[in-house]
Structures are given as structure tokens and as C-alpha cells.
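Summary for the steering committee. One of the milestones for this cycle was to obtain a three-dimensional model of the protein with zinc ion bound, which we needed before selecting residues for the alanine scan. The sequence and ligand used are listed below.
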Amino acid sequence: MNSPMSKSSGTNRVIIFDTTLRDGEQSPGASMNLEEKLKIATTLEEMGVDVIEAGFPISSPGDFEAVKRIAQTVKKSTVCGLARATKGDIERCAEAIKPAVSGRIHTFISTSPLHMKYKLQMESEKVYQAVIDSVSHARKFTDNVEWSAEDGSRTEHDFLCRCVEAAIASGAGTINIPDTVGYAVPDEYAALIAMLFNRVPNIDRAIISVHCHNDLGLAVANSLAAVNAGARQIECTVNGLGERAGNAAMEEIVMALRTRSDRLPFTTGVKTENIMKASHLVSTVTGFVVQPNKAIVGANAFAHESGIHQDGVLKNAQTYEIMTPESVGLNRSKLVLGKLSGSAAFKAKLKELGFDLGDNALKDAFKRFKDLADRKREIFDEDIITLVDDEMLRASDTLRFVSLDLHCGSKAPPKAVLELEMDGQLLAATASGDGPVDAAFNAIKSLFPHEAKLQLYQVSAVTEGTDAQAEVTVRLEEHGKSVNGQGADTDTIVASVKAYVNAINKLILKRTRSAPEALSA
Ligand code: KIV
Ligand code: ZN
């Protein structure tokens, strides 16, 4: 098990609770399908994350199914589901996490005056009773129950202490104090956690957890300040994904603890070398591009542009590098393979990057690698990660890209001749448009007519150079639901078609899986 179950804050081990699949997915447009959630969950498990919050089971059949499948699949991390303080939510959550080797019910209710009055429209005594009832009910299904005081950082201290004491007395082993609206500042938030340790008589029977939103850019700072005050679980997301400005970024938390262990003498179970792989996967699946100057995982996080810096790094890397690129899973010598590399070198490289493919998948990946090497002289780690992720994302596609012939330039309107395959049948169409991408997308629409609206079309280069692979995200919206499609290729228009076709496949899948409106937490 990754998860240490000690209740004491005397330990220096910090539990990493990842909520990318729950709070992260609540970001508008960041929806993920079942296969993508499973892939992210297993990546988090391999990475050594202690608790994976897999979803909010009552919110939709799709979320229920995802939590259940993750609970069946993940063995080393605790799998957690979210539930409001109602019997229906808790029972649905209990059902979803039942197959887990280690499962947790996370139940919450708002405790701040503002939320109780306007959101819940409940008197504080009713809320207090709901804390007791919800935790007691959840304990009938599992002894691993977490209770959260939503908007905890804006809750009156006396009432917060009473609720925390009651939740622990009712059987909650983890107590989470969210800064739901990202309003707190570090010394204030640390003082709030310290206040709970001083005033709640049974606090030693629970692990205190923090869950910080990033509205003021302080989520990581607040989380670390809380750990210094006694908290031993941090709730966070990969790339800081999450509602509004997001949640505390896991990679920043984990690397701050690792790099500044002199000031922050705490450990986690996270294998930091897996950070880049997880970051790339989450960004590809959601279409949320990582900003270049983002701490730890941004493209420039380890780049040294100025001559003075480059000179210093060459003499001694520590002059301008406080962490090694290798410690987050980046290779210092990024050039890896080329046209002449054989399958043994390719297999070794995949292993180094943390991919463990079966024989058939390996054969397919090697074929695609050779194909890429024919078109691109130098193959970097990022190219290989993209190649593997790209295939994983289209594994269950029923509509597939076959070929594209494009005529464009300044002399005549662009024309696209497109071939797709559906259920073994070859489909072909020719279309024109305002530009090459428009022409190619019009050809798709003529082969597969649909009403979905294009919400996002985004292109980024995987590496440097004009022969770089383009990674494209297409977001389509149909009946209020959106899906993200991804595609990668050295040809930007081919990558765009692959991304659009991938999005269509997800719409097809969505139509066959019933998924009513999600609830918000
Ligand atoms: O931000 C928040 O308060 C939450 C709770 C449901 C834990 O996400
Ligand atoms: Zn949240």
C-alpha cells in the first residue's frame, strides 16, 4: 500500500491525495472519458500517489462507472469517491468504491456562514447534525472516511472546531479544511490549522488535510504553510488543474518538499521522476496546455537562454539549477533515437520513460516510431511520449484516419481529399474551405455529418525545429457536453484531422454511454 494509515501528525510523511480526476475534471472543458481516466489513474498509482480521488459517483452514471473501474484496477493507491452529506450520495459512492483494495468515502458539507445561509439555506445546527449523520452513515460502508468542511477557511473558528470534533467522534479518520475560494494567505491558513490542533480535543485521532484553490496564486504556499502547522495530507492536482484558477499543483508541492527538505523536513511517496510523464498525459487528455514558464513542468523550466546563465550551468549546473531535470523525468541529453535505432534501443528508451508495453503494443509503437523517424531526423523523448500517448488515446476509435491529400497556397482555394475508415469500410470525400484546416474539417463533416460545434482548436509543437511534430487539440460541443480530441503528426493538418476524428469518436462513445448532467461540488 502507498498509503500510511498513522493518525499522528508526529510523522514527517505527507500523504499525497490527487484530485485531478475529480476537482481537476470540474474545470470547464477538461472532461475525460473512461479510458483516459483509467490511464491517468494507473499513471498516478505508478507514480506513488497515496490517494486518488477518482470522481463524484452520484453526479452521473459516467462518473460512477469511472470510479468503479478505477477501484477495480488500482491496487496500490487508495481510491476515493466524493459524496455530499446525503444518504443517496454516500451509498452511491460506497457502491462505486466497493471493489477497491483500499477505498475511501469523502463526504463534505459547507460550514461557512455565507455558504450555510445562501448555498445550503440551512441553520448551523442542522449542518452540525448533517456532519454527524453523514460521517456515521459513511462508516457503515468503510472505516476509511474523510470529512471536508467546504469553505473551511472562511468558517467561524468555534463552529469549525465543533464540526471537526463531531466528525472525528463519528468516525472520520481524515479531516480536510479546504480553502475553497482560494482566499487565504499562508500565515493565516497555517494559524487556522494550528488553532485546530490547539482546540479540538480529539484531533490526534485524525489526519489533518488541506485542499487549496489558486485564485490568488497561493495554493502551493498555503498547503506548505499548513504542513508546517501539522497537516499531513495535501490535496492537489497534476499541472494545478481544477475549478477556476485550479488547485495546488502536485508537481510543485512534491518538488518543493524534495528540494527544500532543509526548511520543510517532510517526505512523500511520489516518484518525482514520473512527473513529466503525468503532466504530459493530463495536458494531452484535457487540452489544457502547460504554460512555458510554469514551475517544474513548463517547457522553459529547465531552459537556460542567457549566455551568462548557460556559461554558469556548463561550469557547475547548481549555479542556476536548484533541481536536476532528471529528478522530474527530463533527460539532460534529450536527443535519443534516430532512423537507424533498432527495437532493443527503442524498448530500452520506453522503459526509461516509464512505459511498460505488451508485445503487440510494443511492435505497433516501434512501427510508428520508424514511420516518424523517416519524416523527422532527430527523435526526442517528447516525441516518444507523444507517440505512445497518441496511440493510447485512439485505441478504441471506430472512425479512423487513413489519408489526406491537400492542395493549398495563394493561387486557388484550398481543397482536401480525405479518406477515413469506419467499421472496415473506406470512406472518401473532397471538400474546400477558407483555409487548409477548414477544408479538411469540411471533408470530415461531409463523411460524418454532425451538429457538434467546434469550441477549441489548438496547436502546439512537441519539440523545437520546423520538422517538429504538431500536437493538436480539438474540442467539440454537442447538447451541452464537450469532448477533447487529440492528434499528433509532423504534418499539422494531418494532426488536426486526427484530433477532429478522435473528438468525433468520443462523441460517438458518449452517445452510447448515458451521462446526465454533472453536479458541482
Ligand atoms: O474546494 C472544495 O472545497 C472542494 C471540496 C468538495 C473538498 O473541492
Ligand atoms: Zn476544490
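Key point for the committee: Confidence is low (pLDDT under 50) at residues 1-6, 514-520.
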